[in-house]
């Protein structure tokens, strides 16, 4: 297939290398690169990728969008005139709330959303390391996207394990719950994920998950505060050596994904008239830190 990766950061570069080794024609679209780039993943031979080719974009079967949530809409707005209506758009980022806007911007394109737990790190622009084996979940957002279940085989062949969901929103909400509980706390306190297992944080995490489970239930997702708390603690354990993405954004004074993580939860809580004061407090704290950035 002709696949273009929009925003080849760590996760985008990881998929670029795997999809290319699986035999697809992969090119990149990125502000950071010129016409082509060599990318090496772990100890595999480096691969040369074409970058920013309008021809490749116009003939893409799949556009895999791996930019962060806050820039999904502005970036797709810029390239929309070069995209064919048949190109399948696949969004893969932390947080929720972008698919609605993209479906309005490009209503005729099949739209698929995904989430991954693979760990990747890009120590330099030409290198990507696969730091943690995980799994990926996809599902259709609009009617066209729901007919793209064959993508499960395409992506599974490149980088297993991949699951296709008839209700991807449930998987995304569960990932959102984990991000709401871990990311702001690690960013505010400047700690690795593993620190959150200390008793100091457990009271706050228990309040967060109790609030989040109410919102999930109101959204029709079957869960309980106990099962969310246990899932969050499993992820804290499994990623104990990681610095969360929000921690890294805050340390590097980059805009974080807070509006698409806790911000999205707050919006949905408000729509259902549910009070979520602990999440609200963390949201305001991150906003305050961001305002103090240069
Ligand atoms: O955003 C992140 O960093 C990750 O989604 C997670 C699961 C919190 C692990 O660091």
Describe this structure in words.
Belongs to the ketopantoate reductase family. Pathway: Cofactor biosynthesis; (R)-pantothenate biosynthesis; (R)-pantoate from 3-methyl-2-oxobutanoate: step 2/2. Residues 167-290 form the Ketopantoate reductase C-terminal domain. It catalyses: (R)-pantoate + NADP(+) = 2-dehydropantoate + NADPH + H(+). Catalyzes the NADPH-dependent reduction of ketopantoate into pantoic acid. The structure is a single chain. With 294 residues, the chain is of the alpha/beta class. The chain has two domains: 2-166, NAD(P)-binding Rossmann-like Domain (Rossmann fold, 3-Layer(aba) Sandwich), CATH 3.40.50; 170-293, N-(1-d-carboxylethyl)-l-norvaline Dehydrogenase, domain 2. The chain contains twelve helices and eleven strands. It has helices at residues 10-21, 54-58, 72-79, 98-105, 143-146, 151-158, 168-189, 199-218, 225-238, 245-251, 262-271, 277-291; strands at 2-6, 25-29, 36-41, 47-50, 62-65, 88-92, 111-116, 119-124, 127-132, 136-140, 162-164. The chain has a seven-stranded mixed sheet, with helices on both faces. Strand 1, helix 1 and strand 2 form a beta-alpha-beta unit. Helix 7 (168-189) runs antiparallel to helix 8 and helix 7 (168-189) packs across helix 9 (225-238). The model has no long low-confidence stretch (mean pLDDT 96). The protein binds pantoate.
């Amino acid at each position: 297939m002709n696949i273009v990766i929009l925003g080849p950061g760590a996760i985008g570069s990881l998929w670029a290398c795997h999809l290319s080794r699986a035999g697809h024609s992969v090119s990149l679209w990125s502000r950071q690169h010129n016409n082509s780039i060599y990318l090496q993943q772990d100890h595999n031979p480096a691969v040369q990728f074409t970058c920013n080719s309008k021809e490749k974009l116009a003939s893409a079967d799949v556009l895999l969008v791996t930019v962060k949530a806050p820039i999904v809409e502005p970036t797709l707005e810029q390239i929309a005139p070069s995209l064919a209506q048949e190109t399948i758009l696949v969004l893969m980022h932390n947080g929720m709330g972008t698919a609605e806007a993209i479906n309005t911007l490009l209503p005729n394109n099949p739209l698929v959303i995904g989430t991954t737990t693979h760990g990747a790190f890009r120590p330099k622009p030409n290198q990507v390391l696969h730091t943690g084996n995980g799994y990926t979940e996809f599902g259709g957002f609009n009617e066209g996207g729901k007919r793209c279940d064959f993508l499960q085989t395409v992506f599974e062949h490149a980088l297993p394990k991949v699951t296709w969901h008839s209700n991807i929103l449930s998987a995304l909400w569960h990932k959102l719950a984990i991000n709401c509980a871990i990311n702001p706390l690690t960013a505010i306190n400047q700690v690795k994920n593993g620190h959150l297992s200390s008793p100091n944080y457990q009271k706050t995490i228990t309040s967060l998950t109790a609030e989040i489970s109410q919102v999930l239930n109101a959204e029709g997702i079957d869960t309980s505060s106990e099962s969310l708390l246990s899932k969050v603690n499993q992820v804290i354990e499994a990623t104990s050596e990681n610095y969360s993405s929000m921690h890294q954004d805050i340390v590097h004074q980059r805009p974080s994904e807070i509006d698409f993580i806790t911000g999205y939860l707050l919006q949905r809580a408000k729509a259902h008239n549910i009070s979520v004061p602990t999440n609200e407090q963390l949201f305001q704290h991150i906003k305050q830190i961001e305002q103090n950035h240069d």
